[in-house]
Q: What sequence folds into this?
């Protein structure tokens, strides 16, 4: 007679089966429904990656889209490709003047203040704390944390005037757990989840909702420069219960839901979009 596996043996075999099986991949949603017609959207970090996908999706949903980024050539190309209802503005998230200019452009081309603001812009760099200078740590905070604070502040007058709006910040699984070497990035991403909640509480009575997307791995230039073979991400994909690293478009769909009226009762929350990565307790039972 074969002995029943212990709980630990059973769990370990389930985990290893899950990590090696090729997961059936469902096609991502591609339909659009005019959810943002009549809205002016500001997508910051919209020149590439998740931001580009978000700008394209918001545009497809009918919004007038202002794309802000420091990558002028790429951002201009995205806006030109979208054509009508899209414009690129040079926007360094560290500059209050750039934020003000972006809102002026938004009002002039959208004929209404920004009521949908998504902020995927971020930088990531790797260094252990022992080797990380305070200046480099602060540089990461300036973009990844204070830059979002500036962006939220900049949106308040227009959204208040419009009677409401929706703000989407973007943290990371590194804002919930951590990896060595990412002190600046991770500190900022933890902070964003707190900033999002405070803003949600302070702005609720103005009809402004504020939510935070928490992505897992996304196949963007942040983790894979386009000239690098996509197979470099296979080890990461094998750890994801849904079996693949996220597409930028899958993250954009989450941002769309959060700025649209479909999430009208959602504020101050984290929306984890990680293919199930963080659902598993990271304890090796084998
Ligand atoms: N790619 C991933 O695996 C991953 C995982 C978890 C979280 N995220 C988060 O998702 C978001 C989107 O990242 P991505 O993967 O698309 O990265 P990306 O590097 O492809 O795009 C980031 C964009 O932000 C812009 N940017 C950087 N500094 C800026 C500044 N000072 N002012 C304005 N724009 C600036 C960049 O030019 C770029 O267009 C980020 O917040 C990132 O931290 C990404």
A:
């Amino acid at each position: 007679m074969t002995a029943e596996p212990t709980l630990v043996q059973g769990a370990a075999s389930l985990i290893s089966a899950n990590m090696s099986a090729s997961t059936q991949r469902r096609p991502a949603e591609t339909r659009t429904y005019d959810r943002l017609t009549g809205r002016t959207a500001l997508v910051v970090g919209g020149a590439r990656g998740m931001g580009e996908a978000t700008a394209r999706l918001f545009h497809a949903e009918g919004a007038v889209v202002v794309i802000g980024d420091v990558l002028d050539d790429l951002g201009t190309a995205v806006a030109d490709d979208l054509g009508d209802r899209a414009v690129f503005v040079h926007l360094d998230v560290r500059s209050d003047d750039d934020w003000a200019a972006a809102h002026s452009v938004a009002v002039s081309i959208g004929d209404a203040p920004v009521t949908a603001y998504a902020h995927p812009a971020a930088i990531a760099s790797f260094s252990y704390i022992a080797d990380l200078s305070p200046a480099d740590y602060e540089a990461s905070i300036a973009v990844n944390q204070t830059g979002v604070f500036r962006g939220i502040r900049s949106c308040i007058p227009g959204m208040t005037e419009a009677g409401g709006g929706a703000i989407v910040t973007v943290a990371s699984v590194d804002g919930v757990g951590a990896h060595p070497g990412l002190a600046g990035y991770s500190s900022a991403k933890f902070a964003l989840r707190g900033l999002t909640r405070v803003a949600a509480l302070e702005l609720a009575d103005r009809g402004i909702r504020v939510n935070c997307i928490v992505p897992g791995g996304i196949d963007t230039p942040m983790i894979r420069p386009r000239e690098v073979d996509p197979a470099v991400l296979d080890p990461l994909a094998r750890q994801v219960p849904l079996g693949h690293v996220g597409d930028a478009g899958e993250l954009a769909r989450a941002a769309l839901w959060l700025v649209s009226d479909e999430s009208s009762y959602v504020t101050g929350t984290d929306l984890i979009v990680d293919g199930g990565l963080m659902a598993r307790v990271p304890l090796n039972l084998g």
In short: The chain has a mean pLDDT of 93. The CA atoms of residues 209 and 282 lie 32 Å apart. Helices lie at 7-20, 49-60, 72-82, 96-110, 134-162, 183-203, 234-237, 248-259. The chain has eight helices and seven strands.
